[in-house]
Amino acid sequence: MAEFDLFRFVPFRLNRLAAEVSAALSEEYQVRYGLDIPEWRVVATLGFRDDACSAQFIAQCTRTHKSTISRAVTGLLERKLIERVESSDDRRAFELRLSSKGKALYEELIPRLLSKERDILACLTAQERKQFAQALDKIEEALDLVQTQHAQKTSPY
Fold it and tell me: What is the maximum span of the chain, computed from C-alpha positions, in angstroms?
């Protein structure tokens, strides 16, 4: 049997990094704005896009279970941070977009999160940050993850 070092195993390392980064960022959106992680994922996805999209797309894009996104959407609708709009593709379906209140929150929050990101990556040189971003791009592309705001509106599942 091959020697196994859990602390060198890339999936384990990525999971730990993601958990720590998520916790650091959640201080901004949870404490200041009362958003939990799934709600933040919905707001972030809608704020990043130019147009409305389905909850299914948000689940696919963020790799979050559909029921978790559904609960987040319900809470955000109640708080009037997002709104439903008629789908441009199917008049029987609805898509989601940020409300004006949600847009204001998003625009206020993004600079804070970008600052946190800079703090987290400050241990890397500019060249290392560039190489790290390129490596992440390659892995995401190999895994066929959504990498653009202009991706499909609906999920393939």
Answer: 58
Task: Specify whether the CB–CB gap between 84 and 53 falls below 8 A.
Answer: no
Most confident by average pLDDT, 22-31, 85-94, 130-139, 144-153: 130-139
Where are the chain's structural domains? Answer: 6-142
**DSSP secondary structure code for residue 53 in this structure:** B
Question: In this structure, how many other beta carbons lie within 10 angstroms of the beta carbon of residue 113?
Answer: 16
Q: Looking at 4-129, which runs of residues are DSSP E strands?
A: 82-86, 94-98
Residue pair 63/57 in contact by the 8 Å Cβ criterion = no
pLDDT at residue 153 is higher than 50:
no
Q: Is the dihedral of CA 86, 88, 94, 100 positive or negative?
A: negative
Q: Which residue has the tokens 């241990």?
A: 123
Over 60: is that where the pLDDT of 154 sits?
no
CATH code linked to domain 6-142: 1.10.10.10
Whether the CB-CB separation of 82 and 97 falls below 8 Å is answered with: yes
- Give the mean model confidence (pLDDT) for residues 126-134: 97
Identify the residue whose tokens are 């919905």: 42
Dist. CA 85–CA 53, nearest whole Å? 9
